[in-house]
Amino acid sequence: MKLHNTLTRKKEDFKPINDGEVRLYSCGPTVYDYMHIGNLRKFTFDDSLRRALSASGYKVKHVMNITDVGHLVSDSDEGEDKLEAGAAREGKSVWEIAKFYADAFKKDMLAMNILPPNGYRSKDDNYARATDFIDPQIAIVKILLDKDFAYQTKEAIYFDVAKLPSYGELTRQRLSDKEVAVRHEVITDKNKRSPQDFGLWFFATGRFINHDMRWMSPWGEGFPGWHLECSAIIHSTLGDPIDIHTGGVDNIGTHHVNEMAQTEAAFGHKLARFWLHSEHLHADDQKMAKSKANFYTLNDLAKKGFQPLALRLLFLQAHYRSQMNFTWDSLKAAAQNLSNMYAWADQIYQPSVSEEITAQDTTHLLELLISAIQDDLNTPVALGVLNRYLIKGRPTAELLDKLDFIFGLGLKSRTDITKIQKQMIADREQARKLERWDEADIIRQKLSGEGLAIDDSPQGPIWHRDHLS
Ligand code: AMP
Ligand code: ZN
After folding, report:
1. Rounded to two decimals, what is the model's pTM?
2. Residue ranges per structural domain of the chain
3. Ligand 1-lining residues (CB < 6 angstroms)
4. What is the pLDDT of residues 342-360, one digit of tens each?
5. Taking the domain 2-278, which CATH number applies?
6. SS3 string of 133-176?
């Protein structure tokens, strides 16, 4: 398998450190608001990567964090705390905000058919929350202080970037260039040695006197810096160095550079072998962001009648390393494409109508798909191949199963409906033909109550799992 490594800027042959097993870590969300679909593009990328690795025969151990400790809006530790801002906006506590939006995030992940991480189990779910890893974070700060990679001021404990010669290796940016980039920021702590030094631990004092989330540390009450949680979670769950670390391209310059620095300084080895970064989703030709007015959520899509898996297909139609501009027309086209795939999948219920795809075509199709996704996750090429094979005959349940394993588009679940539900769909079709609209509507509502949504397409009724209901 070939993967593009941000560290080397090359497509490289991927081999895991331990034979047959891949340890994969993905930076997760900060839970202070609903996910916008730009965020979901990144998480869909993580999921496609995981599926591609599994489909290539690797056992994948996947960990993702949830940032439920507020971090500061600016990369240089300045500005307001996102969770505190969310709490003030909604008149709730930061803990309530974190819980509410973590739940909303998990619902979105389910709706997008994104596999839950499997390398860690919390008391509630499979996500590694920053607040559940406070002690491991404190342990790293202690090592960094002992090794003289960190220093303490009245306001915080900082990582001293000048002490680590390899600092910034990921971006190949010299410290002096970075200094220019952050020069315009107002640095409130006058004792910070350099603007690039980043907070490992902030004290609940001065501008943070009212900070709600706080824990005791050997150096005083406070809260951890944002970058620290990922180093601590990886160290405690997967063990470093890991095979692959993922994020969005906006994570590269500061968050990932700093994660790398902490681990390398504390433990004397690299954090990860491969760094993969997905490009942004834009809208109106600007990066979709919560700070701008150009973002949509799954709920906005649902209001216009689009189901989440149409969005998933839209994402897979572009390579993860290219920017993508979101338009409603492109989503509509993806929804149509998904309908066509579902109509093809549903042929398994109509054996008299079409011939079954031959074993030879099936083998060939799967070979082409695997080789496309093994080429740095080339999902657009893979989907092009799949679309060409839709006319080659009725799929088997095993083929749908395999396709779903790779793409997660809900093809397999089409074989999961019960005989009774199948009959209900046929009855509704009959009622519509006879223009008995009320009866058709009642059946549709009944099916919806069972989690099946019905759409009418030129090919006949198309149903899908109604994850949002
Ligand atoms: P955040 O909760 O802001 O940390 O974002 C969660 C993830 O979404 C990060 O990995 C970001 O890189 C990613 N992300 C944020 N905005 C976009 C966007 N417009 N397109 C794609 N990914 C994004
Ligand atoms: Zn991270």
Report:
1. 0.90
2. 2-278, 283-468
3. 27, 29-30, 38-39, 41-42, 247-248, 250-251, 280-281, 287-289
4. 989 988 877 777 899 999 9
5. 3.40.50.620
6. HHHHHHHHHHHHHHCCCEEECCCEEEECHHHCCCCCCCCCCCHH
